[in-house]
Structure formats: structure tokens, C-alpha cells
Amino acid sequence: MLVRDVNSTVGTPRHVRGEGWDSKRLVVAADGVGFSLHDTTVEEGTEMELQYRHHVEANYCFGGQGEVVDLESGEKFQLGPGSVYVLDKHDRHIVRAVKGDLRLVCVFTPALAGEETHTAEGGYEPIRAVPDATGTD
């Protein structure tokens, strides 16, 4: 059984920040469950263009107001507490935090190692080797 809280990630390699966003990785590849789970904040006014070519991502909004734009179709979808969006086709998209900080629970498969930041293309590289839960290969 894994039991963690968000505060336990602060100040560790699992607490990753970028321009206008903050991600606390609660479950990562080394935990061996096949997905990673993150508590993510996108600061109000932030716009991020992203595309996860190597991962599928599901996002559950529990705070703030925002939108996600499908860059292939141009469709815009409103985000607020209780909404979910899934990038099931490696969709190129924009996420905007419009009113208040956008608060998301993000699930990635395959799992992230936990220390990644976005590449120039707005995604994450696949991890090569996954250490086991003890931190060794």
C-alpha cells in the first residue's frame, strides 16, 4: 500500500516547477503501479502549449476556471471544478488558467519518473529504465 500527502513532495525531486506551473508528483514510475499521479497548479493567466507524444494524460479539475484548446480542430472546452479532459490521442493542445489558479489532478501512463520538466515541444520524453520501489534498478 502506498500512502502519501502533497506536503511530503515539497522540496524533493518530485516537486517540479516551470514557468506558470507547479507539479507535485505523488505516485511515480518507481512505485510500480503503471501510472503516475500529480497535483498540478497552473497559475492564473498562464497559457501552455503542450503535446504528450509518449504518454496518455487524464486531468481532473478541482479548482479555478480555465480552458483547453484542441489545436487540430480549434475546439475550446471550458474547465472548472468537476470537469475532466483526457489527451487520449497525443493531442496537441493549449491549457489556459483564466480565473484563479487552475488546480488539476493529472494521471500519466506510462508513468513519469517524477523529476521531468517539459521539453521544448511541450511534452515529456519516455523514461528508459524504471527503478523499483526501493530506488534501485
Automatic annotation (TrEMBL):
GO BP, sorted A to Z: ectoine biosynthetic process
The keyword Lyase belongs to this UniProt entry's keyword annotation: yes
EC number: 4.2.1.108
Pathway where it operates: Amine and polyamine biosynthesis; ectoine biosynthesis; L-ectoine from L-aspartate 4-semialdehyde: step 3/3
Pfam families referenced in this protein's UniProt entry, alphabetically: Ectoine_synth
Domain of life: Bacteria
CDD domains: cupin_EctC
Residues annotated as transmembrane: none
Catalytic activity: (2S)-4-acetamido-2-aminobutanoate = L-ectoine + H2O
InterPro entries registered for this protein in UniProt: Ectoine_synth (IPR010462), RmlC-like_jellyroll (IPR014710), RmlC_Cupin_sf (IPR011051)
Gene Ontology terms, MF aspect: ectoine synthase activity
Keywords carried by this UniProt record: Lyase
Gene3D superfamilies tied to this protein: Jelly Rolls (2.60.120.10)
Main EC class the enzyme belongs to: lyase
Family (UniProt): Belongs to the ectoine synthase family.
Function: Catalyzes the circularization of gamma-N-acetyl-alpha,gamma-diaminobutyric acid (ADABA) to ectoine (1,4,5,6-tetrahydro-2-methyl-4-pyrimidine carboxylic acid), which is an excellent osmoprotectant.
Protein name: L-ectoine synthase
Organism lineage: Bacteria, Pseudomonadati, Pseudomonadota, Betaproteobacteria, Burkholderiales
